[in-house]
Amino acid sequence: MSRQDEVKQLTEDIQRLKLQIEEQVVPSSEQNQPLAIASENDQSKVEISLKQRRILKGHFGKIYACHWAQDSRHLVSASQDGKLIIWNGFTTNKVHAIPLRSSWVMTCAYSSSGSMVACGGLDNLCSVYKLPNGKDPITSAQKTYAELAQHEGYLSCCRFIGDGEIVTSSGDSTCILWDVELKTPKAIFNDHTGDVMSVSIFDQQGTFVSGSCDATAKLWDHRNTKQCTGTYHGHESDINSVAHFPDYGDVFATGSDDSSCRLFSIKSCRQINKYSDDKILCGITSVAFSKSGKALFAGYDDYNCYAWDTCKGELVDQLMGHENRVSSLGVSPDGKALCTGSWDTYLKIWA
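User: That's the sequence. What structure does it adopt?
Assistant: Structure tokens below.
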């Protein structure tokens, strides 16, 4: 083979390897475009081109919840196999596995500092675990740091406020703000008339939103009055998930068993958009905004995750790949990845 033929052969090999690499990792040209959402101006149509980049395998039961850490690298997942798993989303390695006393877990959360995780479910408890640092033994993560017991029904959702406080919602129709260190309630929020399924914290304004099986969402002031400051109607069935608009506490989204997501304005105290399609007839388990807020992602019982144009209310993408209902999803804090968890026992990361 001549030198010219060798160069040609090597060039072709390089191009083939580049294509293989691009199928496995996020191209560098996309790394600064959160979730590959491109828009020439605010009026243009949102275009999303997400690809499955990672599969996190390790659970042996249905995954019920997942939550990103603030470093956008680690995430925690909770499964019916009775384990909390801390993952490295880049390498897909398991960092910690925490065995739970009850396998009927429904929610999990990462603290803002990344030093603690929490979970809860049919045991009516919120269990908080401290994660080991470089000096601590691995077994320290398996010891419960705090068990928060006050709810009279299952624990449906929990979210930290800093490291010292956590908000929980329950099937007993209440939400509770806890002091984690003292292990005592600081405030009880009880205006809902049905199971409270989800909460979303917007701590910059000292508020959080809850969604309930009474088909309403409520806004709460957890710093000052500790009272309900707004009730939002529109859904025709249970609200399973709520999510604040990123960096802007006056708008939030909801997902419901009535097959629709809705966008509510806190200032006007009314619904301002609806996301539904006649071909989608199943319930919604979870919702999350992209970093820019231009897209709203929703997990559905039909095994799919759909992306909606937040402003226009149009369906812009369908993420297929799971073999059972998409039970939870979340966008990483840096906006560069979407994680979906499913009853098929897998977590998938899209970018």
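Confidence is low (pLDDT under 50) at residues 26-33, 38-42, 135-140.
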